Amino acid sequence: MTAAKSSAPGMMFIALILVPWLVATWFYSADRVVWECHLDFEMLVTSSDQRVERTLGSYSQFFYGNNLGFSRISGRKVHVLKNHQTRVHNFYRFMDFKYVQAGPYLKNKITKITRKQGDTLSDDQELAFMSVPGEDVYDQVLKLGPNTYSFGRLGMPRQICQGRQGWLMPRLR
């Protein structure tokens, strides 16, 4: 009976040490989305031969704690030709990527692009935020608050991202 009484404090001590680690591991598991970035955008391009191209869309990125993530882009691209004819194309695409921190930049490497049903935009037409698989894309990172960042790419609108503090870029203080 004395052996049982003396092991109870030891078991309590072990439980007090292990339980917080188990909770933290479950709460901050690597397969959960730790950062999300969302952006609605409109781009207007006018060429020298008076053709107009207008793109309206929505772009989102989701970063997992294991340096993997995916992006989704959807919207509509409208071409107004010289003779005032209009062509409308819809796009719905998902991109899988790997990411690493590279100083004040975030380096994404696109691993796969998936077109979804209803995507009528041909592959030869350029689309904002799209890269080919295998290409490295660098985003500049600016810290806005304790758990909010702004991501920007040259010539593209900035994205506002929010997530758990310290997960993605703990060195940017």
Secondary structure blueprint with pairings:
Elements: H1 2-27, E1 33-46, E2 52-64, E3 68-80, E4 86-102, E5 105-115, E6 136-145, E7 148-152, E8 159-163
Antiparallel strand pairs: 1-2, 1-8, 2-3, 3-4, 4-5, 5-6, 6-7, 7-8
Give a description of the structure.
Helix content is 15%, strand content 51%. The chain has 173 residues and is α+β, with helices and mostly antiparallel strands. A hairpin with a 5-residue loop joins strand 3 (68-80) and strand 4. The longest helix is centred in the N-terminal third of the chain and has 26 residues, at 2-27. It is elongated, with a radius of gyration of 23 Å. The termini are far apart. The model is unreliable at 165-173 (pLDDT under 50).
Keywords:
elongated; 8-stranded antiparallel beta barrel; alpha+beta; 8 strands
Overall geometry: elongated
Percent of residues in β-strands: over 45%
N-to-C SSE series?
HEEEEEEEE
Question: Got a strand count?
Answer: 8
Summarize the structure.
The protein is of the alpha+beta class. It has one helix at 2-27, and strands spanning 33-46, 52-64, 68-80, 86-102, 105-115, 136-145, 148-152, 159-163.
